[in-house]
Sequence to fold (213 residues):
Amino acid sequence: MTQALYLLGALSAEVEVLACSPSEDGRFAVHLSATPFHPQGGGQPSDTGKIAEVDVVHVAIEHGEIIHYCTHPVDLGKTLAQVDEKKRHYHSRLHSAGHLIAHIMHLFGWQAIKAQHWPNDARVQFIPLDTAQQLDGETLQQQCSQYIQDNLPTHFHQHADGFREISFGEFPAFPCGGTHVTSLADIGSIEIQSYQFKKGKLIVNYSVAEEVA
Fold:
């Protein structure tokens, strides 16, 4: 099984290329001993970057293995794997923003049931708990801005069985295998784009700027 270095925040690493085979779509499927590349999953897009100067355009988990899809073949043996740092940081900020929204909404009695943290289509879906309070998008955005200004630190909890949780400040931990900012100020700002009810569920769409001002 490929060692998941991205869980430790790695952006580059010397790795061993164990296998490289052509795929039906013309790309090449590469299997590494360890990887700094976050695969698509948990509502987060995959990292991109380079393995031995060959472009990595997508990373996926297939049959329990992390597969790196590259534009050209990669020689077997030891080499350098390098993640696109700018894109990783953007994805991490989007993911952390979604978690912050979920934390805040939970304070008001709303339970997150589904989320995706995609550029141009980031959203969190909620159902009301018995303690649910009514609020609006403007109030939620103000709450987000306040916690970002307070710059709460991110805490990672990696359990021995591989189960991983993240939290901000004193918020309770949420299960997550994604990448995140080191503290909330790194998010920059969150824009609540829509706040709407559909079939008994609340859907919050949001965005963050591609770069922190």
In short: The two ends are 39 Å apart (CA to CA).
